[in-house]
Amino acid sequence: MIGTVHSSYVVGNAVHQTYNRAFTMHGVSHLRLTDNVVYNSKGHSVFIEDAIERKNQIKRNLVMATKSSQSLLNTDQTPASFWITHPDNDFVDNHAAGSARYGYWYDLQVHSTGPSANPAICPENARVGIFKGNHAHSNGRYGLRIFHAMVPRKFPCDPIVFDSARPDDPFWQNPLITARFDDLTSWKNGRNGAIAETVGDVRFHNFKTADNILAGMEFSLTN
């Protein structure tokens, strides 16, 4: 809960056989979480807590065998190797393998929560950081899951306004911001390589998916 931590880092650690999370980012921004290994943890392994955490760099981490927990949050019963409540964080060259449910779960919140609760923070509609070069395999359901909504726009807490008099520029008062997900390799997951629920201008670029039981990629509802 100490805010901006430009000089802080968590590098080169191994966490294994734990009954709780491996790493929790709580009320911090600009933290570097790099080159760590997590094996056989319970609940979300890498955990972004209050949905106010931004600009953190999560790179080259290996997370394996994330198991469900009945004693943490409800969402920990369906755990992710990387649980992401605010999209403006960078995920680069990470590996998520063998989670009970998800590899990367963007479970974006309407507003920030807990000690950081603030109605002026609207993660569902905030800009998305870098997501590039990540891998997900052998997860119980999805390699990458975007749920509930991801509709990034210029003013995250304001609605999108459609003006019928301006059909060539319908979002003129609050334009959408493009969110790119690049170079995901996702295979042998129990349902999909990647799934997005309710999204705006969200683009999957250069994905490689194989051997997923239901589908390689799926979009449920686009705005």
Write up this protein.
By secondary structure, this protein is mostly beta strands. It has one domain. The chain is 0% helix and 39% strand. The protein has no helices and 23 strands. Strands 3-7-10-13-16-19-22 form a seven-stranded parallel sheet, with no helix packed on it. The protein has a seven-stranded parallel sheet with strand order 4-8-11-14-17-20-23, with no helix packed on it. The N and C termini lie far apart (35 Å). The relative contact order is 0.13. The model has no long low-confidence stretch (mean pLDDT 95).
Features:
223 residues; mainly beta; 23 strands
What is the tally of helical segments? 0
Largest sheet: 7 strands, parallel
Which residues form runs of ≥5 with pLDDT under 50? none
Distance between the termini: 35 Å
Could you give the order of strands across the largest sheet?
A: 3-7-10-13-16-19-22
Shape: globular
Helix/strand class = mainly beta
Instruction: Please give the radius of gyration in angstroms.
Output: 17 Å
Mean of residue pLDDT values: 95
Tell me roughly what share of residues is in helical segments.
under 10%
Q: Could you spell the SSE succession in H and E letters?
A: EEEEEEEEEEEEEEEEEEEEEEE
Q: Tally the structural domains.
A: 1
Relative strand content: 35-45%
How many beta-strand segments? 23
